[in-house]
Amino acid sequence: MTVTAVPTRPTAVLGLLFVAAFTMDCAEMLVLGMLDLISAGLAVSVPAAGALVTASAAGCAIGGPVLALLTTRLDRRRVLLWSAAVFVLLHLVPVLVDGYSLFLVARVAIGALQGLFIAAAFTTATSIVPPEQAGRAIAVVISGCASASALGMPMGTVLGYALGWRASFVAVVVVGAGVLLAAAVVLPSVPTSPEAQATGQSRHAFAPRVLAVLAVCCLIFAGIQSALTYLVPFLGEVTGVSAAAAIGGFLMLYGVATTVGSAAGGRFADTDAARTLMLGSVGVAASLFTMHLLGDSAVVVAAAVLVLGLCGMGMAPAMQHRVVTLAGPGAPLAASLPASAVNAGIAGGSLAGGAAIDHASLPAAILTGAVIALAAVAAAVATRRLRPPPAPTDGHAAPEAAEPVAA
To answer: What stretch or stretches form a coiled coil here (predicted)?
Structure first.
């Protein structure tokens, strides 16, 4: 990966990062759309096939920050190219190896590399635009992920049944290789500060002010996932929507809302990231309480699902922007942490919703999500006045740490 990057416009770089994020998240979502096919092809149970999804999420949540810590001194261009190259190569494992265990290990590594790539993509995106447009640059990368979440599973289902599940991973390798070649030409050099050390970055990245905002991220997505995990049975038993096409319509509505929200959220993050977190948290809590109280109305539930997607993912650029800014010199490492917080929230929210159902009823999962989201509102308010550390006085601040947020 020594191809020399040529000078290019920010639009081209941001477009490349969008496509790369979209491709990586589509590759992750492919498995969800082909669980039954993978289960049959590898002669394992459906829950075992589902563990491939868990493995990738765990790799991203834990391995992403670890790899980010190990690569703190490296140019972000080099990190992006090498992580993308290995990501593509690892997708050859299910194509060439007929075994479940190795595939599972590969999924952990794939998740970790994806977490590293996305963190480096955020740093690169914010380094090539004026500081006042950092939130919008972050939103471009997040929009790639959100678009893939909406399209990845249906694309996986279509490809899997049309070409076979292994052929779907061949498609990932082909598309990924094309993105990698484009990246080698388009991506600029984004060096980190010569003074950057892993220990110093850790001190700033895990500072209390950063951990407080990460807690907001975790709570928000725990609240969303507590309800979203059980949305389909809720629609059937409470709302009275059981037709496959109608349920698909609700899920598509949510997917479109997350895509629109993530794209629009960048401008709000640039205007006032802290206020965006507060208002978005209120929107999530209000939509979940509304769903719980008026869940027998399909129109009301559809509106609540729409607001949930818009507000939930609309906050994502502000979360990333706020965390990176509060970390100051620890920005390259901190850029990987919101994904970990979100994955922890998703896991915790699913468990909380399931426990609520076991101890009460199906609507209790929605109420549990609403209560967690209400806690997120309080946390967002409490973190409203947190400020980044003072700027370095030696004039050598890292480019990725020079992103002021309206707080």
So the answer is: none
Q: Tell me if residue 252 falls in helix, strand or coil.
A: helix
SS3 category, 92: coil
pLDDT per residue over 295-312, tens digit each?
Answer: 999 999 999 999 999 999
Domains and CATH numbers, the chain: 10-186 (1.20.1250.20), 198-388 (1.20.1250.20)
Rg (CA), the chain: 21
352-355 own/partner pairs: CB under 8 Å, 24+ apart = 352/222, 352/226, 353/225, 353/226, 353/227, 353/229, 353/230, 354/229, 354/230
DSSP string, 240-271: ----HHHHHHHHHHHHHHHHHHHHHHHHHHHH
Helix 165-186 / helix 35-42 crossing angle, nearest 10 deg: 110
pLDDT band at residue 145 under the 50/70/90 scheme: confident
Place 392 in a pLDDT band, splitting at 50, 70 and 90: low
pLDDT band, very low/low/confident/very high, at 80 (cuts 50, 70, 90): very high
pLDDT in tens, 15-46: 999 999 999 988 887 887 787 788 888 998 87
pLDDT at 8: 54
Q: What is the 3-state secondary structure (H, E, C) of 151-199?
A: HHHHHHHHHHHHHCHHHHHHHHHHHHHHHHHHHHHHCCCCCCCCCCCHH
Lookup: tokens for 399 = 């480019």
Q: What are phi and psi of 230, to 5 degrees?
A: -110, 25
The span from the CA of 163 to the CA of 256, in Å, is 27
Measured distance CA(190)–CA(120) in Å, rounded: 10
CB 114 within 8 A of CB 87: yes
66, amino acid identity: V
Token representation of residue 233: 């049975």
